[in-house]
Design a protein that fits this description.
The complex is a heterotrimer of chains A (about 100), B (about 300) and C (about 400). By secondary structure, chain B is of the alpha/beta class. Chain B contains eleven helices and eight strands. Chain B has one domain: Rossmann fold (3-Layer(aba) Sandwich). Classes of the chains: A alpha+beta (about 100), B alpha/beta (about 300), C alpha/beta (about 400). Chains B and C meet through β1, β2, α3 and α5 of B and α3, α4 and β9 of C. β2 of chain B pairs parallel with β9 of chain C, so a sheet runs across the interface.
Chain lengths: ~100, ~300, ~400
Amino acid sequence: MSRLMSWRELEIGCVVPEPGNSVRYKTGDWRALRPVLDKSKCIKCLLCWVYCPEPAIIRHEDDSVEIDYNYCKGCGICANECPVKAITMVPEGGE
Amino acid sequence: MAGQVKSIKEIPREELFAPGHRLCAGCGIPPLVRIVLKAVPGPKVVVTATGCLEVATTIFPYTSWRVPWVHNAFENAAATASGIEAAFRILEKKRGIKRPKIIVFGGDGGTFDIGLQALSGALERGHDMIYICYDNEAYMNTGIQRSGATPRGAATTTSPAGRVIPGKMERKKDLLGIAIAHGVRYAATLNPAFPVDMYNKIVKAASVEGPTVLHYLCPCPTGWRFDPSRTIEVARLAVMTRMWPLYEYEDGRYRITVMVKKPRPIEDYIKLQGRFRHLLQPENRWVLDQLRRDVEEFWERLVRLASASE
Amino acid sequence: MAAVTRVKGQRRVGMTGDEAVAYAVKQADVDVIAAYPITPQTIIVERLAEYVNNGELNAAFIPVESEHSALSTCVGASLAGARVFTATASQGLALMYEILWIASSMRTTIVMALANRALSAPINIHCSHDDAYAARDTGWIQFFAENVQEAYDLTIQAFKVAEDKRVLLPTIINLDGFILSHSLEGLYVLSDNDVRKFLPPKEPVNPIDVERPMTYGPLALYDYYYEFKRAQAEAMKNSYPVILEVFKEYEKISGRRYAPVKEYGMEDAEVAMVILGSSAGTARYVARRMRERGEKVGVLSLTLYRPFPEKEIVERLRGVKAAIIMDRSYSFGSPGAQLFMDIAAALYNEGERPLLINAIYGLGGRDLTPEQVEAAFRAAFEAAKTGVVKEREIWLGVR
């Protein structure tokens, strides 16, 4: 949202009419650490996908996963829970 | 039962909960919400009490909800849901409008304490709704104050680990016991580290016509003071130490859904969390012992109820 | 209200205020009723339960466990698109207070009957206007009934006003506790058909709809809250012309014309009494006697309280030398009780305006006697004569 609405532009009542529009708010800039996925190790167990609190893990048709860095807050749950340690947390923006 | 799954892969892909919300990194709430919205079939409406979930997901002009979502006040989620439920029932009769399933999310604050009356009324009247308490064991949204769900010994800002009184001295309220006493047909505990168990219990709750109550352990890195990467790990330990038994109640029968034959000592759970750290000091050992007794008593009672149900 | 003309299709019946309100709600074909009993509103709730259980009213009757839940439940039901009704009094309204603000900000169309009763302590079940006034800032439209006929008529009109797409605000009909709620009076009731035509089923705006998933009741920070309130203020202002329209439309089917303000003897009044609620009848009775003696008194009674009918009041008080503002309540520490403050604020910037005296009366169901009314007029005459208000606040009939 680049411009703040005036009172006349508000929808009637206290409502947000557009579902899921929080996707416009990119929480990816919260990160101090970023997860890096080694796809060669991934066994497609989908644990990272099911646990991610954003969700910032995209589940593809073939059950492979991809991290959505637009929203990832760098909590590290995915790295901690991955049974084959396919995900490592590295400092955002490098050392 | 139709709709239940055997593995995580079978959990539906569609996300009705959008990212871009302002919940803390590592928050234990979204794993619940995402799975609930996938597990409950058909059209649904969500009602949420004031609290972390409500505040962080609906900061105007944004919303993370892709289903109709209603927030009224702190203590009246169950009452608000009762009104929506009754309205759709009568509008279905009078004008053929299709009735959606109502899901209510309340924190432990909005459920155990200030919201208990409204929940009690809604349960007694038998409204068709799934009431889910995401229990992070304190009033987290206002800055970690104690609630009736705070476990014995835990430090919060209103039950600090002081020199004279080391943390909360009262035991945790038994929410499901209260719900069952109201005659609900289905009630269960949930835990994010056991997603398939969680998913299937929600499917079962959704199939019941009438009120059901689900109680979710919601680890909170900010309030319990542990690294955000360990949310699921902490949740798992809660089960493995028997601090959080995973069970369900269905039409008079109790069933432990994740049996813990050899429990880990509760110290393993305690030592990971800043809110319990003072309990490891020798002068507070008596509190830790009481907490351990609370856990043992509850587990033993549950085992008795479960075997009587067989 | 103009003299009642017999419009065809109406029946003459005897009902108490509570019964009349319940009957109006039944004819309005509400969808959801959520209420908690409290004296003196209990008859409303009981009658509605009877209608529903006997199949005379096709509605969901939700016996909630408290007034706070009653209004919360109503909010949910209204958002779901239902026509909703509740009733309460005194402590019950006080318990709902938190939700009153939410109900109006979320633009619900809830209609509430308030059987005006004094607030504790000490506990008292009889009439004061404390509860009505407690709601005056909350964004609800408020009507005051003077008799059972008005309680019935205003209830029906309230649904039409509240649900109008240009309004969408919750509405209260006030009826004096016991004096109206429990008094049997004769009234004309419309036919079911006429009410149905006047009140077609609610056409909700932005109702909960799975096909159009919206978020209701978000958090608004300091960047937006202010604009929401500005929009709400505009809605309340916009309700005024709609209320006048509805009054006009109702006259066509009932023969009874409502107006924001009723006047008696105001054409040449030197001294006037401003009042609301059932005691307006007593005021007019005394005024008529005094006018027969040649004393130029007038009575202004308010049917509409919120939005406040400023224009009407200012116009009618022009030329009056002194006015007594009657308050059946009190606002501790304030520069006048509630109606007094409303009137004083409305008049302040006017060039020509009367001196004002605030008379407190009838708290906790104490009778307002003709003698007390006359004493109040006397005080106004004194001020009119001397040009000075010696005592701004007088308590009628207190020992």
